[in-house]
Structures are given as structure tokens and as C-alpha cells.
Amino acid sequence: MTLPPLSLYIHIPWCEKKCPYCDFNSHERFDPSLERPYLEALRRDLATQVDWAAGRQIATIFIGGGTPSLFSGDAITDLIDSIRSMLTVATSAEITLESNPGSRDAQRYTQYREASINRLSIGVQSFDEGQLQKLGRIHSRSEAFDAIGLAQQAGFERINIDLMHGLPGQSPQAAISDIELAISTGVSHISWYQLTIERNTAFWNDPPTLPVEDDLQTINEKSYQTLREAGFAQYEVSAWARAEQACLHNLNYWQFGDYLAIGAGAHGKVTTQDGQGFRFNRTRAPDHYLAQFSRDTITNSENQLNPIPDDEKLGEFMMNALRLTEGFEDSLITDRLGISADSLRAHCQALMERNLLTWIDGRIAPTRLGYQHLDAVVAEFI
User: What is the DSSP string of 324-378?
Assistant: First the structure.
């Protein structure tokens, strides 16, 4: 069994304001005095995980949040330098940083580029002023355009825009307008998410009125056509990219790769030489995380590894890999799970007979119909 590619995820847990739809591990009111202590905690956290990276290169790094762009350019530079001193980072590694379009953050883009960040993900969410207010965003339409322009001026060639649709009271025309505006900026990647109401959010406690199913279907159909005509290809449920611009870090997630993880609330997955997969996570509260990794003695005992049960591996693999429009090579099942793809033929045959799945020339993929009923397809393997 071949060890999968190895990535690194870093979580920066603070935001200026908690959005009403957000169920991520994000906390309001970032105190700049915590920047340096948090960096030191990240270093100590990573030091407990370096053994898992022995003999392996880091293929991708993703700094997510929260709002990582609240951290200064110097802090991000020091963070990347620390990582390179502790791990073997591939020369061609994709290094992504998430940012919000506030002007203060945008002015740092040049510093981030100089820190070797080579991919920027900007949380626009909408270009509609009314929707930005409903979503609790702190930026305006003009600030979103300014941020994208400043990122391009800073030398970022790989820029993602996060956009949401199915927003409160949103018409299909308004949703498509957002897509058209995103395309007009010249970015190379668009993440196009449908708003869902999650537990432990303000929207869960006071739900807004969302578009009806017919309108959502219209939005999906028209956005699909608009993006394809503009030269974007859908490669995952919510991800669209121009040629050679897919997010390599997320592809590693979806293909059941490994990833170290540092920071408050971070989750990781590692595979040992004998093929056993493990998961681990960090405490969510930033103050608890800082306390844990500020002690004089930090050991590998911080890592409570949880084995991935054999009877859950296949379902989890399929849940992720079938999100990809082109599916996956059937040999990946052996590489990641240590089982023969032929052992799945009965499951796959039933789905193929219902026109939900294809298995052609060694590649398993959902059909267009299967993509629309992905939960039902995945359920066959759980």
C-alpha cells in the first residue's frame, strides 16, 4: 500500500465579526497581541507531528480560518519559514491563504506574496450590497472588487473567490449576476456554494426565508451554463476552475490523502507505514489551545490518534472521491484503502444500471444524474 500525498492545514481562529451563517471554528474580536503567542503555539504543535512526515514531502499548505489575513505579513512569513525549517516542503508546493476583502487585509497581499503564498482565496460571498448586509459581511461590493484587483497587482495569478447562492430572498437573476461579476474579474477559480442553515449559527436560531426549490434548480442550471461558457470547468460539487487551476489541497482531501493539522480546532489525518489510518484534532477554544501549547513541556502525547475503523473507510472514501466530477482511477481504491476495486463491482453495477455511475477505462465517476443524487450513490457504499 502506497502512502498518500501529505498536506498541512493551519487554522487561524479569529474573525472581526462572526457571520450569522458560519459554523466554522471562528471567534470574534482578534487581539493583535495574541499574534506572536499563537505563532509559537503553532510551532510547538507542529513539532509534535514531524515524525509523521518523516521521508515525506509536504505537497500543499492551506492557511484557513477564521480570517488568516488578520495576521501581519511578517507573521505569515515567520510561519512559513518555521514550517520549512521543520518539514520538507515540495519546491512546487501550493500554499493557500484565506482572506476577507476588507481594505486593511487587502493592503497586505504584497507581503503575503513575498512570504511565498502563491494562492489566495477571497471570501466575497456576494457582490450585492443588500445580501452582504444580510450575511453580516463587513465589506462592501466596491471593497470586494478592490481586494481582487489589489491581489492581482500583488502578483497573485491563482485567486479563488468564495461565492454563495440560494441566499435570503435571492432571485435566479441576482445569483447569476454574482457569477457574471465574479467571472469578469479574471480570477482562475470560483467556489460556488449553496447556503445551508447549520446548527449553532444565528441563522439556525432565526432562519431567513430562502429561495424555493424551483428557483434553486434554475440557479444551478443557469450558473452551470454561464461558468462553462466562460471557460470554467466544474471539478467538484462546489468548485469551478480554469485549466490547471484546481485547488490541489482540496483535491488531496477529496482523494483521501493525508494532512497534518495545527491550530485551534484543526483536524488531521495520517496513515502509518502499515496502512492504518488515524484521525486527530485540536481543542477548539483559542485560549485553551494557547494554554496547551504554551506549557514548558510539549510531547507527542498531545496527539490522541483515533483509528479510522475499517468498516467506515470505504464510505468515507466514496463520500469524498465521488464529489469529483471526473471521479477517480479505480487503482486509487487499492492505494488508499488496500482493497481491490473488483470487490466493489456488485455495488457499482447496481448504480450503473440506474445510470448513476460509470466505470470506464479504469475510472469510476458519477453521471450527471448521479451527481444530482450523490447522497443516494454514496449510501450504497456505507
Answer: BTT-EETHHHHHHHSS-GGGGHHHHHHHHHTTSEEEETTEEEE-HHHHHTHHHHH
Say whether 260 sits in a helix, a strand or coil. strand
Q: Where in the chain is the domain with CATH 1.10.10?
A: 310-379
Which tens digit of pLDDT belongs to each residue from 118-153? 999 999 999 999 999 999 999 999 999 999 999 999
CA 2 to chain centre: 24
Single-letter amino acid, residue 214: D
The answer to whether residues 1 and 275 touch, using CB atoms and an 8 Å cutoff, is: yes
Residue 82: which of 32, 41, 119 has the closest Cα? 41
pLDDT of amino acid 299: 64
CATH code, residues 310-379: 1.10.10
Distance CA 171, CA 134 (A): 15
Q: Is residue 20 a contact partner of residue 203, using CB atoms and an 8 Å limit?
A: yes
CA–CA distances in Å: residue 137 to residues 107, 155, 216: 19, 26, 23
- Per the structure block, which three cell numbers stand in for 66? 477564521
Do 74 and 103 touch, CB atoms closer than 8 A? Answer: no
Tell me, which fold does domain 6-253 have in CATH?
A: TIM Barrel (3.20.20)
Q: 21 and 201 in contact (C-beta within 8 Å)? A: yes
Strand order in the sheet with 277-281: 233-236, 239-241, 189-194, 159-165, 119-125, 88-99, 57-65, 6-12, 258-262, 267-271, 277-281, 306-307
Contact (CB, 8 A) for 170 and 211: yes
Pairing of strands 189-194, 239-241: antiparallel
Residues of the chain with CATH 3.20.20.70: 6-253
Report the predicted TM-score, pTM, of the whole model to 2 decimal places.
0.96
Residues of the chain with pLDDT under 70: 1, 103-105, 297-302
User: How wide is the angle at C-alpha 240 spanned by C-alphas 226 and 199, nearest 5°?
Assistant: 105
Measured distance CA(265)–CA(40) in Å, rounded: 16
CB-facing half-sphere around the CA of 364: CA atoms within 13 A: 23
CA distances from 33 to 30, 39, 167, 295 (A): 9, 11, 36, 18
Single-letter residue type at 100: N
